[in-house]
Amino acid sequence: MTQPLQKSTMAPVTWNHLPPITWIATLDGQEVCTIKRKDIGGWTAGWMGERLWPAPSHLPKAMPQPTRFFGTLEEAKLAVEQALAA
Questions:
Q1: Sequence-separated (6 or more) residues with CB below 8 Å from residue 32
Q2: Looking at beta carbons, which pairs linking 39-43 to residues 24 or more positions away fall under 8 Å?
Q3: DSSP state of 63
Q4: Is 76 helix (H, G, I), strand (E, B) or coil?
Q5: Among residues 5, 49, 1, 40, which one has the least CA distance to residue 21?
Q6: Strands of the 14-18 sheet, one edge to the other
Q7: What ranges do the domains of the chain cover?
């Protein structure tokens, strides 16, 4: 028999928009990540503090980095929320 999924006890991520190009992720009232639009297209998500994005799987020798590039704002927000939920 399978166990029902339990709801996470983590508070939801709140997104604050600083027009025109910046979004800030806030968790429990603390700023944890910024997402900024790039002039060349796409978005970068950068952690505040000690958190790092894992190295890409296609670059086995790469080190974890505090900033990661995304093609869309939605993709960046989803990745931040998933990383915080992990």
A1: 13, 25, 26, 47, 48, 49, 51, 80, 84
A2: 41/71, 42/69, 42/70, 42/71, 42/72, 43/69, 43/70, 43/71, 43/72, 43/73, 43/75, 43/76
A3: P
A4: helix
A5: 40
A6: 14-18, 22-27, 30-37, 43-47, 67-70
A7: 14-53+65-85
CA distances from 40 to 2, 37, 71 (A): 47, 9, 11
As given in the structure block, the two tokens for residue 75 are 């993709």
Alpha helix segments (H runs only) across the chain: 73-85
Confidence (pLDDT) at 57? 85
Q: For the segment 2-42, what is each residue's pLDDT rounded down to a tens digit?
A: 434 334 456 689 999 999 999 999 999 999 999 999 999 99
